[in-house]
Amino acid sequence: MSRFLIALVTLMTLSGCVSLNSVSLTQVPNDRNNLISSTAHDWLFLGFTSQNDFVEEAVNGLKDQCKGGKLTGILTKHQTTAYVLVFKREIIASGYCNKA
Amino acid sequence: MYKITLYGILLLMTACARLDHVQISDIDQSQGSLKPISVKVSEFAIELAVIADVGSRLATNHNTQNSLKEIRDILALMNMGPRTGNPVFNDNYAENVLEQLYVQCPSGKITGLRSTREATTYGAVSGEIVRLNAFCII
Known about the structure:
The complex is a heterodimer.
Chain A: H1 2-14, E1 17-25, E2 35-45, H2 54-65, E3 70-82, E4 86-98
Chain B: H1 2-13, E1 16-24, E2 27-28, E3 34-46, H2 48-58, H3 62-78, H4 97-103, E4 110-122, E5 125-137
Antiparallel strand pairs in B: 1-4, 3-5, 4-5
Helix pairs in contact in B: 2-3
């Protein structure tokens, strides 16, 4: 019985359900050779948090990979993965870096 | 009184940030150095159906309980349907954000605009927030 319970709890913990909160895309350039991406996330217990600052981490990640260039065609995904009592919020951003 | 204090503490402890929507626009670092700028507008919002529900639970008189439950149901029906966050009483609160952003950027060259729809919630009460972060090319 206890083995069954452990297996059930493990399965429930590992099987996170993802929900997509928002998606956006900006103008896509002709030159699409240099695709870069950046992600940022934070973990919530029972959904409680007092800040959304992790969004800026994704932006800074994109900026750092395209210094002196122009970043266009940015696809931004905001998603939440729900585990048991714990939630992972993620920002996944990618775009094309063009350095003239 | 004990119940009210308990509910009050519980509501204050559950102050929570909510993130609904994030959009990142093109970032141009080829025209000069970037200065971060930001505008945030917030509007008071309240879920009246939840307030009526709490009221019905706290009421000691049976008739008052029933009346508050009926009010709760009517309010819930009035506000049903797809929505983001709690209802606000002023739907124009985010109209001037672009002007406010340009005030912070005398060159007028704005890049890397991030539009965020978020909220700070205190139980049935919340601050519904629209935030614009961007970079000003200087």
